[in-house]
Amino acid sequence: DDELQTDGNRSGHFQNVLFVLEGLASTNEDVIRIIAAQLAEIGDQFDKEIQGRVVNDLVQHFLNENLSREEITLHLSRVVRELTQSIPSDMEQEKAMLVLAMLLTKKIVNTVPSLLHRVFNTTLNYMNQQFHNYIAEMVSAVKQ
């Protein structure tokens, strides 16, 4: 029921990374909140870097019923990699890519809310494929 957020709004913190951390059953809520706050802060910084045409292009891919989930996931991955090149190099690439994927998801869904289910599932699949180990390492680091 909540809007996908990366703007630091407390109501969105937990939801933003809940689906990322879905497979980590032993994770407690405080760890998720800490990671969510960090990712939300980074998302706020990246938000102005993403141009509307990038979002509109992704929207068109998600609206195209002829494209498979794999094709859309590949396109999303390509866009995330391209955007990663325009961000500060002092940040871990995996973290930047993770935040960009979540931020793109938010922007797409805010543009065309009816795409929520398709965008959410595609992004979740992409993040599970690409960042599962990285997310587990983040959780482990915060727990220590």
From TrEMBL:
Keywords: Apoptosis, Cytoplasm, Membrane, Mitochondrion, Mitochondrion outer membrane
Subcellular location: Cytoplasm; Mitochondrion outer membrane
Domain of life: Eukaryota
GO biological process, one term: positive regulation of extrinsic apoptotic signaling pathway
Pfam families the UniProt entry points to: BID (PF06393)
Recorded GO CC terms: cytosol; mitochondrial outer membrane
Cytoplasm found in the keyword field: yes
Keyword Phosphoprotein: no
PANTHER family, alphabetized: BH3-INTERACTING DOMAIN DEATH AGONIST (PTHR35447)
Protein name: BH3-interacting domain death agonist
